[in-house]
Amino acid sequence: MPVGIFDSGLGGLTVQQEIASIIPEQSLVYLGDNQYAPYGVRDHDQIYTLTQNAIKRLWKEGCDLVIVACNTASAVAVKRMQEEWLPQDKRVLGVFVPLIEAVTERKWGDNSAPREVNVKQVALFATPATVATRAFQRELAFRAIGVDVEAQPCGGLVDAIEENDFELAEALVQSHVSALLRRMPNPQAAVLGCTHYPILKECFEKALGPNVEVYSQGKIVADSLVHYLKRHPIFIESGDTLFLTTGDVNKVSLAATRFLGKKMLFKSA
C-alpha cells in the first residue's frame, strides 16, 4: 500500500523528496491542501477538521499509513487523532518526534526516561499556530531535561515561500532570527519547525552564524520512516508517486515546480 504524505501546502514536498531519494521504490501519495493553506493562521478546531479531511482523502488512495508533514497539523491534531479518532488499522505519524530525537541524540524508538543532553539552548522557528501549541516543548520534555527552548513565531514566511517571493522570505528570516537572538543570544541549535523552511536553510544558517547547528526535517523524517517500515513491512509497496492538491492544479503545479526547481505535475484531489 502507498504511504501518504500530507501538508497544508508545498512545504511537505521537502519531506516527500527526501523519502523518495532514500527509498525510491516506495509508492507514495502526496496531498497538499492548498485551498485552505496556510494552516498557521487558523484556530485549532479548523486545523483538526481540515487534517481529518485530508487523511480521509489519502485513505481513499489506499494510504493506511499517513505522515503529517505539516508541523502545525502535527502539533495541533496528531496526538488527539491517535487518542480519539484513528481506526485500529490506520497509522498517522507526525514530524516533531523524529526531529526531537535527532536534536537530543536519542535512537529511534528510544522510550527511556528523559535525561540530560548536550544541547542546552535550542531556538525554534515555526508558524504562530505551532508555537502557540508548545507541542515541541512538550515532546522534548518526554525525552530530555535541562533544555531551554526559545520559540520564534515566523509570521508571513510560509505565505512568502508559497508565493515564490524569496526576496521577502529572506528578509523575514533575517527579521525573525534577529528577534530571537535578542532573547537568546547564543543558541547551540536551531530547529526549523516548518517543512517550508528547509528551502531557506542556508539563509537561516547565515543569519544565525557558524556556531549554531540548524536542524530541518526532510532527511530526519525520511530516515525515521525507513526504520518504521522495517518494523512494519505491511506498509511497504513498490510503485510511483501521485501528487494531489485541493487547490488550482495548474497554479499549484507551477508553484511546486518553482519551489523544487524541477517539473512537478499535480492532479485534483
| CATH architecture title of the largest domain | 3-Layer(aba) Sandwich
Order of helices and strands: EHEHEHEHEEHHEEHHEHEHEHE
Oligomer: single chain
CATH topology of the largest domain: Rossmann fold
Separation of the first and last Cα atoms: 18 Å
On the 0 to 100 scale, the average pLDDT is 93
Identify the CATH class of the largest domain.
Answer: Alpha Beta
Briefly characterize the structure.
The protein has 269 residues and is of the alpha/beta class. It has eleven helices and twelve strands.
Provide structural commentary:
The protein is 45% helix and 17% strand. It is an alpha/beta fold. It has two domains: 3-95 and 218-268, 3-Layer(aba) Sandwich (Rossmann fold); 97-215, Rossmann fold, CATH 3.40.50.1860. The strands form three sheets. The chain has a six-stranded parallel beta sheet with strand order 4-3-1-2-11-12, with helices on both faces. A four-stranded parallel beta sheet has the order 8-6-9-10, sandwiched between helices. A two-stranded parallel sheet has the order 5-7. Helix 4 crosses helix 6. The longest helix is centred in the middle third of the chain and has 18 residues, at 166-183.
